[in-house]
Amino acid sequence: MSLARTLWDPLHVRVLRLLRDEGALSRAELADRLDIPRPRLLGELDRLVAGGHVAEAGPAESRGGRRSTLVELNPSMRFAGVDLGATSIDVEVTNGRLEPVAHYSEPADIRSGPKVTLQRVNELLAKAKVEGAFAHLDGIGIGVPGPVSFRDGVPVSPPIMPGWDRFPVRELLTREHGCPAVVDNDVNIMAVGERNAGVAHSVDNFLFVKIGTGIGCGVFLGGEVYRGTDGCAGDIGHIQVDSHGPVCTCGNVGCLEAVFSGAALAREATAAARSGTSPALADRLATNGVVTALDVAVAAVEGDVACVQLIRDGGRRIGTVLAGLVSFVNPSMIVIGGGLAQLGHIMLAEIRSVVYRRSLPLATGNLPLVLSELGPRAGVAGAAVLASEIAFEQA
């Protein structure tokens, strides 16, 4: 959390955040940590208790004299984090401390449109409610695989999401569940999740690169997500890397996403299987009828030369783009996540090699380039963080 934001946020937001991140605290500890007069804090706590946001949690350890009473977030507080991928839906319900209470994951096709997809999200949340995960949601966060107007809570001209342009996602979820909702790009929620509970915990300046069906970059600067003027900062998948490359879903030619992503890798792997360049992939194609990015990862580990080369070629493309970002932003960490993170250390080694070779030594001398610690949970974890933020602001 940036110092500027911490200083200027309303007191009730600062109290609720501290209880979320630290757990039960005494009134004296809260006053000390927030550096505010105790009478002012007590008045705010009374209001939060009356509103059902905070509850007493028994006596604190003695600090000499009369024992203070611990306070905590209301144990019934619940947030929902939703991560919509191009081919999947992930839903997680957490308590006020952002600890998972229920989790659901299933295949889906984002191209089926917003009504079908969001209806399924609502059904999964209804299932969680029936199974006792919550009585009422205090906030919902959702990430979608395309550009988002964060201010308006709607996707904007998303290339792989037909029918979603300007669809009122936030409004629909708020109306359906009777709580505030927030909508963001899927890679931004992954970055938020990784900073809150992953390898980038408390790192103020870092890049989170999602490599999956699409490619995007969550940009954390000064402890905050940098979304840009219109919410499309970090859309690195549409940086051109090959002027003679394939046509991208955005309509341009040779975008990074068009030459190395889940779909692009599957395309190249299929060609390698059919040509006989990769015996391992040829066997999988004959057996299963298709080859996937996971097949490439498995075959590479088994020593298939063509698969190792496919991964290295992709890693080199990613590394070239990231080297430019390192020179421009000078981050203190780069985190690699998304479905193709399963390509593992072959890809990571190639990305590192290119970034460290092409960027200035001053920018890379102390630059960790690592895989996501949260893995596939990064998205829902980050969405739940955003859900808690919007709920606290409206408390």
UniProtKB/TrEMBL annotation:
One of its GO terms (molecular function) is kinase activity. Signal peptide: none annotated. The keyword Kinase applies. InterPro entries: ATPase_NBD (IPR043129), ROK (IPR000600), ROK_cs (IPR049874), WH-like_DNA-bd_sf (IPR036388), WH_DNA-bd_sf (IPR036390). PROSITE patterns: ROK (PS01125). Keywords: Kinase, Transferase. Pfam families: ROK. Belongs to the ROK (NagC/XylR) family. This is Sugar kinase. It comes from Catellatospora methionotrophica. The lineage of its organism: Bacteria, Bacillati, Actinomycetota, Actinomycetes, Micromonosporales.
